[in-house]
Design goal:
elongated; mainly alpha; SRF-like; about 220 residues; 5 helices
């Protein structure tokens, strides 16, 4: 026996209307609870009866849900799209893959350092030996390149220092006084001093007081 379809329209009988409101309200809140539990949804319901009485349901905090709704209403461009289940599953698989790769690389580095070698077979040890030898060869090659580069840099600095030394030596030669000039200047100074002394002596003799008659020559 099929259920009779109820026509959706306003119930004129006040008593029947109140009974229907009470039943439907409880059913609505029950469905909201089921939806929140099954789908981890955040739900808030506000219902006012015909008499103005408030009924409410919230899966968490009514105030938080209202604030969240207000924020999204005022900032529609900042709505954050929730990732789908497929996207979450893809990210989870990607994370697991990265973790496995990290663990593998960490183990490989430890074995190259000579650790955790007990579980390796002979073939794995030989393969590890080849990897270590290849790595040492690359390190030695890089070291030789760095040494050659450092030697070249030191040679270049040496040439620059020699050039600077030569330039300073030339500047020193410009300011040196020739030896013959020094020898020529010194006698002149001595002669001037002697001449000055003789002149002083002559002047002193002229001012000497002489007593008596002069003797004939």
């Amino acid at each position: 026996m099929t259920r009779q379809k109820i026509e959706i329209k306003k119930i004129d009988n006040i008593t029947a209307r109140q009974v229907t409101f009470s039943k439907r309200r409880r059913g609505l809140f029950k469905k909201a609870l089921e939806l929140s539990t099954l789908c981890d949804a955040e739900i808030a319901l506000l219902v006012f009866s015909a008499t103005g009485k408030l009924f409410e349901y919230s899966s968490s905090s009514m105030q938080q849900v209202i604030e969240r709704y207000s924020f999204h209403s005022e900032n529609p461009d900042k709505l954050v799209c929730q990732p789908s289940l497929d996207a979450l599953e893809h990210e989870r698989n990607r994370l697991d893959s990265l973790k496995a790769e990290l663990e593998e690389k960490t183990t490989e580095i430890r074995r190259m350092k000579g650790e955790e070698l007990q579980e390796l077979s002979l073939e794995e040890i030989k393969e590890l030996e080849k990897m270590v030898e290849a790595g040492l060869s690359r390190v030695a090659e890089l070291k030789d390149q760095r040494v050659v580069k450092e030697i070249s840099s030191l040679k270049k600095k040496g040439v620059q220092l020699l050039e600077e030394n030569r330039r300073l030596k030339q500047m020193t030669n410009v300011f040196e006084v020739p030896t013959d000039v020094v020898q020529h200047v010194r006698p002149v100074e001595s002669t001037n001093i002697c001449s000055s002394n003789n002149h002083h002596d002559h002047y002193s003799s002229d001012t000497t007081l002489k007593l008596g008659l002069p003797f004939p020559n």
